[in-house]
Amino acid sequence: MKKPAILLHQDELKDMAVDIMSINDLIEPIQTAHRDDHYMFIIQQNGYFLWELDFAKITLSGPSICFIAPGQVHRHLKFNKCGGWLVFVNPSSIPNAHREMFDSYLNVNQSTSVQQDDAVFQIVALLLKILDQKSLPLQKALLTSLVETLTGLIISHIVQLQNSTHLMSGQKYHTFVRFKQQITEKYKELKQVKAYAVLLHITPLHLNEVVKETTGFSASHWINQEILLEAKRMLYYTSLDVKEIAYVLGYDDHAYFSRFFKKHTGMTALEFRNSKPSFVQS
Fold this sequence. Notes:
By secondary structure, this protein is an alpha+beta fold.
């Protein structure tokens, strides 16, 4: 049976800032791979949790945290003696600075172990208490404040893990973040560095210099990676043929897309589709 699109979970939070689910309430041993229109934070106190995130394996063992951003394809595959929570947060409830930092670490490092007494566990426990008090004065403001604290703690752990605190400030970093945001929104229409430079009101040369200095990679590398990531998602999680995938990604010439894919991955699109690791189950 043909799978024409990746399942999207949307409007589940509606106007809510945050919702929380105990890991112990999970029933499905293996989820259907899907995207969300909200953030999900895995706050694990103990046990073993295996996730598939953009066709990569994420293993959480013991006290751990992980973030999954809107649009990322994911599902849980296995869990054993897990305790903790899944925290679902409306993107509009997360400060822009925190969202920018999460964007910077997408598909780079989205999880880390923490101490058993880490403050994230206390914040989630407090969030649960506030959520239960529907008639509490200023409940919405309190939830917003706690969400800001929780996401700040999580991104702080990720930054420390990468030892990249020095990158999280300055005009060049913010230019790179804006560049990545534009790619996420426009990669199907815009494929050239000069097009993004126009949007950012800088020259292509300056954009390349900033991105190279900030990340070690060229601006075109990040554009190509966004295209390739979505192509791989569709190859793994849908039955669309290569011609259809090329069209969705904004390529009128599917042969050109095929050459582009092989040049940057070392294999054809069909070879990639057939190379699913053992933990991926259709």
